[in-house]
Design a protein that fits this description.
The protein is mostly helical. The chain is 70% helix and 3% strand. The protein has a 6-stranded mixed sheet with strand order 2-1-3-4-5-6, covered by helices on one side.
Length: 927
């Protein structure tokens, strides 16, 4: 018993260890005997993964070490080389493989096509012993990818069997080449469509900015009971954003909810973008706050929206709420600061980013260029570790926008030399640079580069080419580019209209406009602006009424052109109506609209331009210049000096136009000392070299004030070459002060240096006539007759009840002329009784005194003013435009008329405005 117990005690721990070990072993999986088939599968999988990762050499080592290979092994290796740009090595393995199948041939074909070697791809296709639908699709896709739609469509038509991928491939090709009419035609023939089919078509229309067609297609898709997915909803929201229609956003949201995508962060961010770009910031913010999930794009969208609407404080507040600051959110805030001119804060954020990506670098470069800091932009650009196409595009565009077009083209050359292909944006900006400097030859080189880069179908590039050729005066090539555009979008038509207009081909521009299949507000604005700039403002106004009748809402550019037309026509009543329209449409937020309003009022002789200026929240240099030029036109010399001093006090640096305005104002007001002071400050204070126009103002100022010889000395000693205008200014002063000797000398100089016009002869003739030198007057008139020159007749215009009435001196064609003449004689007799004496010296003919009185009586401005008095309510102002300088007799007559009729009479003659009120004129009898 004792011995047994001892043995049991000794063996028990050993037995327990054995049982434990056995139990552990029993839980392990049994080793699997590796078969050749298993090894083959693992190697094929490894080759595929290494090829996908770009590790082709590693994949090749696995392939070479394989004991056994099947067709999958060979195809995977060929595919690895093909997909990684090593198609020649793929071809070597392809040639070694004796068991080629359809997939093998298709893989090599695809590899050649991907590298742009379409001829070799086609040789492989033609050599295939058999083909399936995938092979056909691969060849068609190859042609599509290389822009060869002709052969793609030919193969498609020859296919023995097509699937939906075949149809989608060709439709995609048409869309990528902006041939949307052909894409739509093929799309309509499809026996079946997938979401991809709809996506390709909708995206195609969005890409050419035909947003309405994209929306209609989406509606059609929904009606055919096709359920949109995330991608389609996002692209449709892009179309809605382009249409700028808030109602469409509201109509799409129920669809997004029904399909379960409104809560999707990508679709939600797209809805947010649509609201923000629509300008509905409150709705955008409300939607943002209800989003169940937000990503960095959602945050950056709202920050950018606040920034673009000038709400920087709101952008900063939102930026501070971002839960986790990323490179994207910092880039958005950096851009916001740069847009607000706070470039130091933008740079501070940029420096905080530990590893800025290309987008951040590009944003900082763009920030510098937006603030005119080109040196800083160039320095940062040079430091970029990796430049992408957007980096180069930002630099080129930045230099173009800062009027450094030649430097922009140098950057394009640097880009080309680097071996990189310029982007569409780089080409477009470079073409704008060529247009700015008028260098059509460089433009043609860029045209060739764009074709080689495959950008000849890009609408932005093509439209840029049309604009470039037009601005360089080469409409033949511009029109040729337009004709080569396969699918012309509205922008293409608009570019051609603008180009023809800029080259004074107004009839051609109107013909193109009438041929347009669809017109938008830009089209109407382009043709309206064309007529306004050509001096046919009344036609522009008629077109505007037609535009409204067709339901097109004007934009800020339309209104600006119409305000210009009103100013040119002196149509103040119509101008006031457009002013009201500006507020109704909310266009008063645009600075250039305010500038146009100021110009319109001053051109109409109304000082309401000052009120518009005071009501504007922001002023730029153009605003100040508009006021200065307006003061000059209206003879408001002291007001011009006051505004100039205010501009200086605000820290706004004047330019050549600023000085032109203030000098002209001084001239019309006789402010000689003030004129000299500002003229001298150009070089001494602002380092601005006066141009011949500034010297002409000074000669006019000195001449009007009687300093004729000082004016002559200024012309002789000025560093710029005198033109005919400056000599005519001095000749006009000689006529005013009846200095025949100097006048003859100036006239001889004019006859020697330029081909004299009728104005020069008339000035000299009037000078002789004022001194009773009738023989000389006869000689001048004979010279004019011999050269086929005639004196321009005096013409005056007045607008009554939106109709323009024209009067010519001594003309009797107006349908109310008898009533006008009768009233004019009555006024004339009344004025003579109260002290008016006709100034017969204004009649520059050697005729009897009675005939002189008769000629004076029927001057065009007198006829126009009397017609205005007969046709308008008592007390309402009268406004007349005259082509020539008002004579002293008419000037005196108007003072009496304003006093007797208690009317304000405004006459804009060939030089300036005269405001007659209560018997006096704003010019102080100095004109």
């Amino acid at each position: 018993m004792i011995r047994w117990r001892t043995a049991s005690t000794t063996l028990y721990p050993t037995i327990r260890r054995f049982l434990y070990t056995f139990r552990c072993i029993s839980t392990l999986s049994l080793p699997i005997q590796e078969t050749p088939q298993t090894h083959l599968f693992q190697c094929n999988t490894r080759i595929r993964e290494l090829g996908r990762l770009g590790r082709v050499d590693d994949a090749r080592r696995v392939f070479d070490e394989m004991i056994q290979r099947d067709a999958v092994s060979w195809n995977m290796m060929i595919n690895g080389y093909s997909q990684n740009g090593r198609v020649d090595e793929a071809r070597l393995i392809f040639d070694d493989f004796v068991g080629k199948n359809v997939r093998t041939w298709t893989i090599l074909l695809t590899g050649y096509a991907k590298e742009g070697r379409i001829d070799e791809a086609r040789q492989v296709f033609e050599s295939m012993p058999e083909r399936n639908v995938v092979s056909w699709n691969a060849m068609i896709s190859g042609h599509v990818q290389n822009g060869d739609l002709g052969n793609a469509r030919k193969l498609f038509d020859e296919m023995p069997e097509k699937n939906v991928a075949s149809w989608n491939s060709v439709v995609t090709g048409y869309c990528h080449c902006y041939r949307m009419s052909e894409a739509h035609e093929l799309f309509d023939q499809m026996p079946e469509r997938t979401l991809v089919s709809w996506m390709v078509m909708i995206s195609g229309y969005v890409h050419i900015s035909d947003y309405w067609e994209a929306w209609k297609l989406f509606v059609k898709m929904c009606r055919t009971m096709v359920r949109p997915d995330q991608s389609i909803l996002v692209v449709v929201l892009s179309a809605i954003t382009g249409l700028d229609d808030l109602e469409l956003i509201r109509s799409l949201r129920p669809i997004a909810i029904k399909t379960g995508y409104e809560g999707d962060v990508v679709v939600g961010s797209a809805i947010l973008t649509a609201y923000a770009r629509n300008g509905s910031l409150d709705l955008a913010m409300s939607f943002f706050e209800t989003m169940p999930e937000r990503n960095e794009y959602s945050w950056t969208t709202m920050i950018a929206a606040f920034s673009q609407c000038g709400r920087l404080d709101d952008a900063i507040r939102l930026y501070d709420q971002v839960p986790e600051q990323t490179v994207a959110s910092k880039t958005a805030m950096m851009t916001a600061y740069a847009q607000a001119g706070r470039i130091q804060e933008a740079r501070h954020i940029f420096d905080e980013i530990l590893n800025p990506n290309a987008v951040a670098w590009n944003a900082m470069v763009a920030g510098y260029t937006q603030n005119g800091m080109l040196k800083e932009a160039k320095d940062l650009f040079e430091k970029m570790p990796l430049k992408n196409s957007a980096s180069w595009a930002a630099m080129i565009a930045g230099f173009v926008q800062n009027e450094s077009s030649r430097e922009a083209l140098e950057i394009l050359i640097e880009l080309h030399r680097s071996g990189a292909v310029p982007s569409d944006s780089s080409f477009t900006s470079s073409l704008a640079a060529c247009a700015n400097i008028g260098d059509v030859e460089i433009g043609k080189v860029i045209h060739s580069l764009a074709i080689k880069a495959g950008c000849q179908f890009n609408s932005y590039v093509m439209n840029g080419l049309i604009s470039m050729y037009a601005k360089c005066g080469n409409m033949e090539d511009g029109s040729h580019v337009f004709r080569t555009i396969r699918t012309k979008d509205t922008v293409s038509w608009n570019s051609l209209i603008s180009g023809l207009s800029e080259n004074y081909m107004l009839d051609d521009a109107r013909l193109v406009f009438e041929k347009m299949p669809k017109r938008d507000v830009v089209s109407w604005t382009a043709i309206i602006s064309a007529y306004v700039q050509a001096g046919h403002g009344e036609i522009g106004l008629d077109l505007f009424l037609d535009m409204l009748a067709r339901g097109i809402k004007p934009n800020q550019l339309t209104v600006t052109s119409l305000l210009s037309a009103c100013g040119n026509l002196g149509a103040i009543k119509l101008g006031e109506q457009f002013h009201a329209l500006v507020f109704k449409l909310g266009l008063d937020i645009y600075l250039f609209v305010g500038n146009a309003l100021i110009t319109m009022y001053f051109k109409c002789g109304y000082e309401d331009g000052f009120s518009v200026f005071d009501e504007m929240h922001e002023h730029d240099l153009i605003t100040w210049n508009a006021v200065l030029v307006g003061c000059a036109q209206n003879g408001l010399g002291k007001e011009a000096i006051r505004m100039f001093e205010q501009m200086e006090a605000k820290g706004i640096l004047p330019d050549q136009t600023s000085f032109l305005g203030v000098l002209c104002a001084c001239s019309h007001a006789g402010l000689v000392n003030e004129g000299w002071e500002h003229f001298n400050s150009m070089t001494k204070k602002y380092a601005i070299s006066p141009l011949v126009y500034h010297y002409t103002c000074m000669v006019d100022l000195l001449g009007r004030a009687g300093y004729l010889f000082e004016a002559e000395a200024l012309i002789k000693n000025m560093p710029v070459n005198p033109d005919s205008v400056i000599w005519e200014a001095l000749l006009g002063a000689c006529r005013i002060h009846r200095n025949v000797e100097l006048g003859q000398r100036v006239a001889e100089r004019l006859f020697q240096t330029t081909k004299p016009n009728s104005g020069t002869y008339v000035l000299l003739s009037n000078l002789y006539a004022s001194q009773g030198m009738w023989d000389k007057v006869g000689e001048i008139r004979q010279l004019m007759k011999d050269q086929g020159l005639t004196k321009n007749p005096g013409i005056s215009w007045i607008q009554v009840k939106n109709k323009m009435h024209c009067f010519v001196t001594s003309d009797r064609t107006h349908n109310q002329i008898e009533e006008i003449c009768s009233a004019l004689k009555e006024f004339h007799g009344c004025f003579r009784e109260t002290g008016y004496t006709p100034d017969t010296n204004c009649v520059l003919h050697d005729v009897e005194e009675e005939q002189k009185l008769n000629e004076l009586l029927y001057h065009s401005e007198k006829l126009a003013v009397v017609f205005g008095i007969l046709s308008t309510p008592n007390g309402s102002p009268i406004q007349v435009i005259k082509n020539l300088r008002i004579c002293s007799d008419c000037h005196t007559f108007m003072k009496f008329m304003s006093n007797v009729t208690l009317r304000k009479i405004i006459i804009r003659d060939g030089n300036r405005f005269h405001h007659f009120r209560d018997g006096s004129c704003s010019c102080g009898d100095y004109w």
